[in-house]
From TrEMBL:
Organism listed in the record: Szabonella alba
Transmembrane segments: 60-83, 95-116, 198-227
Source organism phylogeny: Bacteria, Pseudomonadati, Pseudomonadota, Alphaproteobacteria, Rhodobacterales
Domain Fatty acid desaturase: 96-298
Keywords: Cell inner membrane, Cell membrane, Iron, Membrane, Metal-binding, Monooxygenase, Oxidoreductase, Transmembrane, Transmembrane helix
Any GO BP annotation: lipid metabolic process
Localization per record: Cell inner membrane
Record InterPro entries: AlkB/XylM, FA_desaturase_dom
Membrane topology: Multi-pass membrane protein
Name recorded for this polypeptide: Alkane 1-monooxygenase
GO terms, molecular function: metal ion binding; monooxygenase activity
Protein family: Belongs to the fatty acid desaturase type 1 family. AlkB subfamily.
Main location: membrane
Length: 344
């Protein structure tokens, strides 16, 4: 837990200092998120040990809550620093925008992801608030009710097809998950009644943009929306990378095989995994969605496919579809051959 807290919490403190003090401080969160994490992964080629089966982590949820609350505090602070009237130069504003945006996308997003999987309703609501603040509230429904049910099938909007470039995948995934989440929640509401969750999501999004306007007028709205788009881009990149080209087989009785370890790409690097709350151990999360993130397992190389580089690096490569296909095409084909899932 100490590593999770240090890796994910330290940049939050750096962002706060950068937003409040400006000057050279704006370099620190950007360098931490963009370079230091990857350097530590490479310099120290360590795979974090797995927790004993049944181990409990009473501090795990406390860290999630702290990160969720930090996000809700830092987002308006960063908007004020980037869009408001202060002594920051344009270059400093850009550095702060991207440094903070990387933390919102790579730390606050995994924290919100964990929060919406927790059974405690207040933790779930905090996760919804985090997603709502970046105008992506519907992910709280689509991820749980659609992605976890249909992952690695053509029915799941957030599973990338083999050969599909990210820039084609992203709009399909965004609109498809919005619609599929709406349909799933509407079916639930027909049985349970009450306020439709999408009303909450839309309300949180509108309230966030109003907060941006109150902070710094139109520039505040634009910066808030820009940060939200930056976060959404990173979330979609993570989905794209972690399920790229992997499909579930159809069984003799016509049903799809259950989701297993081989239907997610994983990454073993220690520091980026700690930063992202073990999100790169994606197979075990799909197998055990309620398992605490410190206890997630890393499947063996013969059980699940592994990414060639840390998850943030692979997400960056995916921005160039041609480069991505060059890197991942042979690896996907080899995994399909090895696991007997090559469809020819």
């Amino acid at each position: 837990m100490a590593l999770f807290a240090l890796a994910s919490g330290l940049p939050a403190g750096l962002i706060a200092l950068a937003a409040l003090l400006g000057g050279g401080w704006v370099w620190l969160p950007f360098l931490y998120m963009a370079f230091l994490t990857v350097m530590l992964d490479q310099i120290i080629p360590l795979v974090a040990p797995e927790a004993p089966e049944g181990a409990e982590f009473p501090a795990a949820d406390a860290l999630l809550v702290a990160l969720g609350l930090a996000h809700l505090c830092l987002l308006p602070l960063v908007v004020h620093a980037v869009a408001g009237q202060n002594g920051l130069s344009m270059g400093q504003r850009v550095l702060l925008f991207f440094g903070a945006g990387l933390w919102f996308g790579q730390v606050a997003n995994p924290a919100a992801h964990e929060l919406i999987h927790r059974g405690n309703r207040w933790m779930f609501r905090l996760g919804v608030a985090v997603y709502g603040s970046v105008l992506f509230g519907h992910h709280a429904s689509a991820h749980r009710l659609v992605h976890h049910v249909h992952a690695a099938t053509a029915t799941d909007p957030n599973t990338a097809r083999a050969g599909e470039g990210f820039w084609r995948f992203a709009p399909r995934a965004w609109t498809g998950s919005f619609r599929a989440g709406w349909q799933a929640e509407s079916a639930r509401q027909a049985r349970r009644g009450g306020l439709h969750p999408y009303a909450t999501y839309l309300g949180l999004g509108l309230g966030s943009l109003i907060a941006g306007a109150m902070i710094a007028g139109l520039p505040g709205v634009l910066v808030w929306a820009g940060l939200a788009a930056h976060v959404q881009l990173q979330l979609l990149l993570a989905d794209y990378v972690q399920h790229y080209g992997l499909t579930r087989a159809t069984l003799p009785d016509g049903r799809l095989e259950p989701v297993s370890d081989r239907h997610s790409w994983n990454a073993p690097q220690w520091y980026s995994s700690a930063l992202m709350l073990n999100a790169p151990r994606h197979s075990d999360h799909h197998a055990h969605p309620a398992r605490p993130y410190p206890a997630l397992r890393l499947p063996g190389r013969d059980q699940a496919p592994r990414l060639p580089y840390p998850l943030p690096v692979c997400a960056t490569l995916a921005l160039s579809p041609r480069l991505w296909r060059r890197v991942m095409g042979p690896r996907l084909a080899e995994w399909q051959r090895q696991s007997g899932t090559d469809r020819g």
